[in-house]
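Students often ask why we bother encoding 3D structure as a string. The short answer is that it lets us treat folding as translation between two languages. Here is a chain of 213 residues written in the first language.
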Amino acid sequence: MGKINQGILGGVSGQVGNVIGGTWKGIDYLRIKPSSVANPRTEGQVDQRSKFSTVLRFLQPMTDFLRVGFKLYANKMTQFNAAMSYNLNNAITGAYPNFMIDHANALVTRGNLTGASNGAASSPSAGNVEATWTDNSGSGSALATDKALIALLNTTRGEAVFTTAGPARSAGSATIPVPSEYSGEDVEVFLGFVSEDGTKVANSVYLGSVTVA
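And here it is in the second language, the structure alphabet:
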């Protein structure tokens, strides 16, 4: 049992109801005892944790890439957390315990810059993945000098290869070298753009799954 020292205006020692009191360096303090959770693993909680883990596995290999891709949405949160929030709400498919990432609805770059047009991906030679697009400079906010943001995600290994300073939009293509051990494995390919001065970013476009030659 706790007690109130020096009357009602004094400090509390021990526990009174759900209030715990004590003294630290001569200072009286109070804190509320947290309510116990009867079932910390409800169906809703397990469901949400599983979704969270699914998105985390998807984004973690691209952490450095997301610092550019989601920098415009890092308001009172990190770029990674902004990407987590978006993809949790928009890129999950399936049902527990088999949640998956819907790559077509996922974003690894986000912004209002005009995005890629007619994007495609292939592996034309050993150890290389090529992304191609139509130069749509002059359409909307697109400029010829915008730089390609390209991410290749190897979900089997939980690894990613990416560039935040790819060729200009006007180039229409980019070749990305990948590790030799990726041969025969699939990579998920995403293409976005960032303006030359870095102030604008485009929503990424999913170019599909490519088997590395």
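Translate back mentally: Residues 43-59 form the longest helix (17 residues). Keep this in mind for the problem set.
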